[in-house]
Amino acid sequence: MLAILDQLGIAKVKQVQYCDDAYLEIKSAILNKDPYDLFIADLSFKTDHRQQKYTSGEELAAQLRNEYPDLKMIVYSVEDRLQKVRYLINSLRVNAFVCKGRDGLKDLSSAIQAVDQDQMFLSLRL
Predict the structure, then answer these.
(1) Nearest to residue 109, comparing CAs of 121, 118, 126?
(2) In order of start, what are the domains of the chain with their CATH numbers?
(3) Which of 100, 2, 89 is nearest to 42 (CA)?
(4) 9 Cβ partners below 8 Å, 6+ apart?
(5) What gap in Å lies between CA 94 and CA 100, rounded to an integer?
(6) pLDDT for 6
(7) What's the confidence (pLDDT) of residue 126?
(8) Hey, is 122 helix, strand or coil?
(9) SS3 of 88, please?
(10) Which has the closest alpha carbon to 119: 101, 95, 93?
């Protein structure tokens, strides 16, 4: 994924392993008047020893959408249940949903470009 961001000329990238860290990073950037233009999240993570307030990308996306309604969001996940995708698009108002898989990175590139132009993107695999 980082290679795609680099190819698209996206210089400011912060990759974190935990949803709580992502939340704090986004909140800090906004408070410092240097907000991120885009948030890309997976939906699920394996649990480990670290306690988390946000245990899934879905929970984090819901909180971010509540606090920062204009933040552009892409969900990049193996999840491909149509009901879940509808919820993400209609309720959480994510800007794009990309299925991981054979065309995942190509779709992610297309999604980033579409969202940058204020367009919605859904992987064709759905």
Answers:
(1) 121
(2) 2-122 (3.40.50.2300)
(3) 100
(4) none
(5) 16
(6) 83
(7) 60
(8) strand
(9) helix
(10) 95
Give, for 21, the enclosing helix (H) or strand (E).
Answer: helix 19-31
* Tokens of residue 24, six digits: 């704090």
Strands (E), 27-99: 38-41, 72-77, 96-99
Phi, psi of 58 (to 5 degrees): -65, -45
- Give the sheet arrangement for strand 72-77, strand by strand: 38-41, 72-77, 96-99, 121-122
Give the Cα separation of 120 and 113 in Å (integer): 10
pLDDT for position 5: 85
The DSSP letter of residue 41 is E
SS3 content of the chain, % helix, strand, coil (to 5): 40, 15, 45
Residues of the chain with pLDDT under 70: 126
Q: How is residue 32 written in tokens?
A: 């410092």
